[in-house]
Amino acid sequence: MTETSAFTRSPHFGRDATAATYRDIHLPRVFTPWARVLLEIVPPRAGERVLDVATGPGTVAREAAKLVGPDGSIKAVDISAAMLAVGRDWPPEPGAAPIDYIEAPATEMPLNNEAFDVAYCQQGLQHMADPYAALQEIKRLLKPGGRLGVALWQQSPFGLFRQAVAELGLPESGPQPSDFGRDPAALAQAIHSAGFQGVQVQSRQLVSILEGGIQQGLQVAIATSAAARMQELRPEQQEAVRAVITRALEPLVQADGVHLTSIANIASAQKPS
Prior knowledge:
This protein is of the alpha/beta class. It has a domain at about 10-155 and about 175-205 and about 260-270: Rossmann fold (3-Layer(aba) Sandwich), CATH 3.40.50. It is built from eight helices and eight strands. The protein has helices spanning about 15-40, 60-70, 80-90, 130-140, 160-165, 185-195, 215-220, 235-250, and strands at about 50-55, 75-80, 100-105, 115-120, 140-155, 195-210, 255, 255-270. Strands 1, 2, 3, 4, 5, 6, 7 and 8 form an eight-stranded mixed beta sheet that branches. α3 links the parallel β2 (about 75-80) and β3 (about 100-105). The longest helix is centred in the first third of the chain and has 26 residues, at about 15-40. It starts with 15 loop residues before the first helix and ends with a strand. The mean pLDDT is about 90.
């Protein structure tokens, strides 16, 4: 499926290089720890049918598969073929539920009504062109009484990269993620407006350590929207981007690597019975 601005604000996720960086660096240090927090707050139960929206490389899907076990099932949906390829290549874990990876936008998922017990979306809604429509589509797919768990950055671990690059005054780097979900009260209202009840939002904080130091931090930065068009810049501009990101990372260096702090708003809700 071709990624267009009709569905996504972050087309860089469709690049193989971005997907590889997520697999090797982001996933174990940032997104898997956060997935476990999300599943702690909205836990799936053994044997349940789970939907993971904007699954990326399948982070939440794999963690949920271990919890629901072999009698459960997982549908993992994403618009990025590159990210889904990472998920499909991941070795299955013994005793985990099977995962079916589906390439589709979150607003038009080719799945049956009221098919799932619980649905998740980790750090995906802010990258969607229409997050409200995605929430309504998720509600369509949940059974009556089905549960929802979503996570969105209040403070992204990658925000300092965007701030640093913005100081350079370079040409607009294309679509950027929105601020959707950054305010807890606004997130709760959006989920309620989509037709969910019992909405609760809590904030959690984690520190991710890039043990590879500043060089690993640069790899992470180049795979975010902050530097998504690096290859289109002149060599001197590329060097300026690396230099300003390096300066932003230097105060975060500790003995064991670069420490990136993130805060997520995690919402739980339920479809009316």
